[in-house]
Amino acid sequence: MIAEMCSSVLGKRSKKYSNPHTNIVSAYSLVISSYRCFQCFIHYIFLDLHAAPGKQNANSHSGTSKPPTFFSSKHNMQHTTHILTTLLSHLNQFLYSHSPPLPNLIGIELINEPDPPSDASLQSWYTTSIQKLRSVDATIPLYIGERWRLDAYSDWLVQSHDGGDALTVLDHHLYRCFTSSDINIPAADHTRALDPEADGHTFHYFTSLSEKLGLVSGGSGIVVGEWSGALNPGSLSTSSSGGWEETKQYVDAQIRLYDKTCAGYFFWTFKKQHPGDFGWSLRDAVGAGTFPDRLGLRPTIPGGVIEPDDVARAKSDIMNRACGEDVFFFDVDETINGCAENHRKWWSQYPGSYEHWKFDDGFSKGWDEALRFLMFDLSGNNSLTELGFTRAWARLQTEDHGSNYWEFEHGFLQAVNEARNFFQNHFGYA
After folding, report:
1. Which of 162, 213, 164 has the alpha carbon at shortest distance from 390?
2. pLDDT tens, residue by residue, 139-169
């Protein structure tokens, strides 16, 4: 769930109400009741300050119809930081009043789609706000909008950000239906550009960004905080299915892209006021078949639900003599050795100073961490839990981030992928 917050209910007076305090309290009570409700269903909440004081962009979804004054007002910028830190402080008091503490606050987005006069002004505000929020809670994951400038903000995070031991994540919104150039591109071309299976250029771009963000202190990654299946009619002009087939292929390509390169993704939106739009409404898209009815790994073989002991025993009886091969039963150490041998053979073509033992260490730790997540809920009622922010998680598994850290990371990432394949191939998950 994304809980979107507006400054009018988080500390800014509104002339519409004779008692603004009542408005603030009722909104906060709604947030708290959401936590209680979603905790019962083991759901998690991500907070997004969608409309900041003075509004942070010129769009109507930033709270008012007035011109934006957020970046031209020092007061508005400071007040927004105060709103965020106050909200986090009060939420933590509530969450930690339970025993054990409620775990379902998974992150805060500082502001939605900011449009500053310069990168410098926004990055300065981000730096100040992140420091103040982390002084309240040093572990809270924080999400920042990147103005559709992923290169610039990933470089900034790598070069200048010290976020401690907590995630600082880039939030990217991906649509292909608004600009004049998007309107004139056929749907199939949009899909190919995104699709890893078509070796799309966006896939390569996101992969390189993910690799770069793996170097951020405290961990980082890309989350696509808004995306949809919507395509402009101009992109669907040759469709023979009323846009259905093109939309389905476009959605499938995006899911493949995000699964391979991103740490998460949020479809926009769950439903619209009026039914029938399978481009923007998730509920209608699932009903129409343009969006899968489920995501993630679930058992597909009758009786395929397994117990934790089954996985533990399989560690000494796993199928795959070498990475990527589908042979028969063998020892998990042989998997590591097979992948390690492939790693050494590849890099032997390029003379250099290597520490291949780091690959082995990364693979071993990656395998164990991946299984720890995959085994979290083996009831068969839900999709398997999978490790996200894999590069950030890899970074946490070692204190050695020196010149050959990349070998540790390669081993870790390869093991996570192999562990997922293991569940798919040998326990009937798909």
Report:
1. 213
2. 999 999 999 999 999 999 999 876 578 999 9
